[in-house]
Amino acid sequence: MTRNERLEQILMLLRDGELIRARDVAGRLGVSERTIWRDMKTLVDYGVPIEGERGLGYVLRRPVALPPLVLTADEMAALHHLLRLAEAHADTRIGAGARGLAAKIRAVMPPEPEEDAPPLAPPGPSG
Engineered SS bond to 21: which of 26, 57, 75, 83, CB 3.0-4.6 Å? Predict the structure, then answer.
């Protein structure tokens, strides 16, 4: 796992707003507590609103969100197709990465419109 991946994982662990100890984060990510302490400092230096300290634990003061990304229907179709191809890739790292990315995208996507919904009525005659 790269450092950037680890920082992202730490942010994911902090998103629930609960206090979490460096020891617990280190255990989940397979690194030392010292590494987590340095990573927390790095995140704070980047401006992430984390409160806490060594020995007590850390908490995210307020949610951190990325700006919205608006995709067209064609872009979504292309993304879906590319993720399906990557998920089936022989390299298990690429497949696992594609599955993780697809899960993150699905988590923030609005629900698809129901297929049974009636079509919109055409506009009536004007005037």
Answer: 57
In three-state secondary structure terms, 31 is coil
- Domain limits of the chain? 3-60, 73-108
Q: Are 125 and 114 in contact (CB under 8 A)?
A: no
Q: What pTM was computed for the model? A: 0.53
Which residue, among 38, 102, 56, has the nearest Cα to 10 in the 3D structure? 38
Considering the domain delimited by 3-60, tell me its CATH architecture: Orthogonal Bundle (1.10)
Closest CA to 12 of 81, 112, 1: 1
Task: Give the whole-angstrom CA distance, residue 14 versus residue 20.
Answer: 7
H runs (alpha helix) in 1-127: 3-14, 22-29, 33-45, 73-87, 92-108
